[in-house]
Design a protein that fits this description.
heterodimer, A: mainly alpha, B: 424 residues, alpha/beta, six-stranded mixed beta sheet, 21 strands
Chain lengths: 164, 424
Amino acid sequence: MTRFFCFTCTILSVGFLAAGYLLSGLVWPALGLLVFGILWIVGLALRWDWLLPLELFAAFGAAAFGLVLDLSPVLLISGALMALISWDLAGFSLRLRKASAEDEIATLEKRHLRRLGIQALIGGSLSAFALTLHLKPSFEWIVILMFFAVWGIGRMVDWLLKKE
Amino acid sequence: MNRTFLLALLIFLLLFAGLATLHPTILALALLLVIYLLAGLWRVPEQVLLQAERSISAERAKIGDEVMVTLTVSNHGSALEEVLLEDQVPDGLEVTEGSACRLVSLPAEGSITWTYTLRGKRGYYGLKKVRATVGEALGLSMLEQDLPTDGQLFILPPVLRLRRVAIQPRRTRIFSGTIPARQGGSGVEFFDVREYQPGDSPRWINWRATARHPQNVFTNEFEQERAANVGIILDGRHRTNDFGNRSIFEDSILATAALADTFLNTGNRVGLLFYGRQIAWTMPGYGKLQGERILHDLSRFEPGDSHSTSEIFVPRHLFPSRSQLVLVSTLLAEDYDMLASLRLSGYHLLVVSPDPVSFEADGMAQTRSNLLARRIVQLQRSVLLRRLRGAGIHVVDWDTFQPFEQTARLELERRMVLPRGVLR
């Protein structure tokens, strides 16, 4: 089940990103994304685990670049969200490989998918909401907010890494 | 790359990109990752208090036997969403049924018990820990813990039953046994004729000698049979055991176990000296307990080299001169001097030598040059064995493709006939 969803999300991710570029007439970047998608799927099928972080970076990079070019934000953010889900499921299936036949894999999968679905829904909704906001803060405010964001996320990551 | 670190890096890059390009939509993109990170953070387990217990169906097993391992892991902390439990199975053991890994979720005060079976090569294996990798469902924060457990497993070498090994050291112990002691007394084998003494059984009277000398009565004397000190020396040097990726060492172990068992069964005091990767000494002793000790030690030994393996160290206070030494070795030409000096010191030597030439040749192509090389090496070995026999050493040349029992029956059950001119 996990692998099926993983492949589906990968295809959707590449499809959304490529559509975002293609609808704005950028054919070559869209083709490039399709090639990248094929590589991604091959990597998943052949279990090239080292490729997973690169794919996440590439998908978010493509989405960010498209946003800079003012392409359709809905398609690009959807593509990025699917890439995130695909990356998560690939990692989960990696962990599932160590499970034994006696383990309740189906239960673990269901729980994981439910939690991931909720998280994706919240993330997607917040991003969509953020897109509707049209605030015009001054540059100083942006810098201050950004500073707090970086500091906050830094603290959180530091805490998580220490916990490990 | 760590998943948390990867996400954080991506978030920072997007934040800076958003700031640099003044595109708020990029911040919306970063928001997806921030929510994902927060979801992981929210479910990080607060306290990990796991405890593992292990039970093994047998602590000692033979090669090929299956041993059942049962593990129970209890969670005394908060509920854990995803726990990967991996029993650290040492190299040399293989899981034949079930799995040494479990991926489960453990509620607070919950536990899991599972069983799997192991099989392995000869050796000593410590089963001392279970690795627990605890994480939340998204796998962002993974905490690794080694849970200590008690457990050990000896995979012992097989013990072949030999009927008898004929040795005759000059010195024996005072206890009765099966080794001819070169002294008259009660026994089975005829030893000498002497004058009748009060207390001698009339059945021992030698009527023929008495008839020849009517003024005296003569009785037969029998050779006393006593226990002896036997020191077994197992050669574990890399040079004498390893041939490419094959090793004859297991055959040496097999022979040593069989010999030790036979000597102990006949009441002798047996000690074992191993020199290979390490020098190990099993103190001499008697009986079944000593047999177990020797088997346990044999299960640990591995061939290899240490700095002090150039010559055999024989603790003479434990094995006084004229006692029996048994060397199990494929032999090198330079070993002759060492063996001859031991013989000169008064030790009685029995050398059981697994044939390394046929063993090595078995794994090689039958080319003309290989056949020629084999013949040359075989001749060199024959010369060495002949020299050793000439020095009064009982040498058993064992072709390892023949069962050891068969070779032992032919060459070890009867006393060695020494060449003419060689002193006992």
